[in-house]
Amino acid sequence: MRKKRLLSYEAKIIIGFILFLLLIFLPIPLLDTVVLFKNKIVDFYNKYIQNYPLWAQIFVLCFPIIIFITIKLIRKNRCKYTEDTFYDVKWKWSWHKDKIVNLQCFCPTCNEELYYDDTTSNFVLTVSKVDFICEKCHKVVASIANENKNVHSAMMINKEIQRIINRKIKEI
């Protein structure tokens, strides 16, 4: 699915051509403004920046670019991480910006989507648990202890995924 664009390519070309004609025929002192702006930049450089060594000047210019590229690479690698196994259950998800969405669990033997049941264990145990059941295999694939009844299993898995991502980022 393509992202809807505001203007078509033809409209952008026409608008660019009209702006080009306006810049040519309207009496705007554009060249004088550019020269004045260049002179102000040169004066600022000579007054404040030239005193520092060249390596420091280059470092200040390159450091934000390096940080930007590093952040882009980390985000790109995180978006590739969309599948893992936790608690003997295969989990798949997708990313929307920095959040995990469409979290689904699958049976490790038949790859069928699992459903969960947390009603049976609430009355028997003091610590509740969530059972992940496969309809095709007719068995409980995994059980996750849930000490906090307000936290759902999806939130626990989200936290586990974030923990693993943070650990991988520290290794980089």
Explain the overall architecture.
- The chain is of the alpha+beta class and about 170 residues long.
- The protein is about 50% helix and about 20% strand.
- It has four helices and six strands.
- It has helices at about 10-25, 30-50, 55-80, 155-170; strands spanning about 85, 90-95, 100-105, 115, 130-135, 140-145.
- It is elongated.
Strand content: 15-25%
Strand-pairing-aware structural class: alpha+beta
Helical content, roughly? 40-55%
Based on Cα principal axes, name the global outline: elongated
Q: State the distance separating the first and last CA atoms.
A: 33 Å
From the structure provided, what is the oligomeric state, counting identical versus distinct chains? single chain
Low-confidence stretches: none
The overall average pLDDT, rounded, is: 77
For the report, how would you describe the main beta sheet? 3 strands, antiparallel
- Largest sheet, order of strands side by side? 1-2-3
> How many helical stretches?
4
